[in-house]
Amino acid sequence: MKQIILGALIIMSTNLLNAQINAVTSTGDEVFLYQDGTWKYADKEVEEEKEIKFNEKKFIKDEKSTFLVKSKKANVGIWINPKIWSFTRDNAGFDNATEYMFQLKEGDLYGMLISEKIEIPIETLKGIALENARMAAPDIEVVEEEYRMVNGVKVLMMQMTGTLQGMKISYYGYYFSNESGTIQFLTYTSQALIDSYKDDIDKILNGFVEIKE
Predict the structure, then answer these.
(1) Which value, to the nearest 10 degrees, does the dihedral of the CA atoms of residues 99, 109, 195, 97 take?
(2) Interaxial angle between packed helices 2-13 and 122-136, expressed in degrees from 0 to 180 and rounded to the nearest 10
(3) What whole-number distance in Å separates Cα of residue 116 and Cα of residue 181?
(4) Residue 46 within a domain
């Protein structure tokens, strides 16, 4: 499963600011053109946007997450439980944005830490992440979203579902940006398995920390 969907996730991580093309029709309407050949009116997209709620709960790292995986590009890290998670540097050569790949040692749950050296306001990350995801899965949709405070850091949480090569896939991740760069920390598995892995997902995602220099 990992190798099948890895390429699609790489597409989601690259060209962060080029997910869509803005154009104007002959009647003067502004539209968004997507790389899958679809389009929509710009004003319709604005109307569909909803205010993202803020979860008042405080999210903190699990006490068994004792190993810190540090980003080399941004001032962030991921605390993991090394007994149940393995990780590797991304040596696949698909792009320069993916730093680490994670895998649950016993199961079909995977993760990626994607970083780019450009700061993007967290309020705009949702649209960019969604349009990038559509490049891999045109039917992608957001099923849950909220802002969270994770170890004292504000992040955007999004869960998305879509179809990749006939497979129903769920992405569940955190999005963050500061002066050192923009981070996508994603977990992914099949839609049929996402609920059974919810506890494992929460524990690794809540290991996300900002490293103060």
Answers:
(1) 20
(2) 130
(3) 6
(4) no
Q: Residues 131-187: pLDDT tens digits?
A: 878 877 888 899 999 999 999 999 999 999 999 888 899 999 999 999 989 999 999
**Domain count of the fold of the chain:** 1
CATH code of 13's domain: 3.40.1000.10
Write out the two tokens for 85. Answer: 């998670």
Question: Which residue in the block uniquely carries the two structure tokens 């600011």?
Answer: 17
- Is the model's pLDDT at 94 over the cut of 50? no
**pLDDT value at position 12?**
55
68 touches 81 (CB < 8 A): no
In a domain, 161, yes or no: yes
Q: How far apart are CA 15 and CA 36, in angstroms?
A: 15
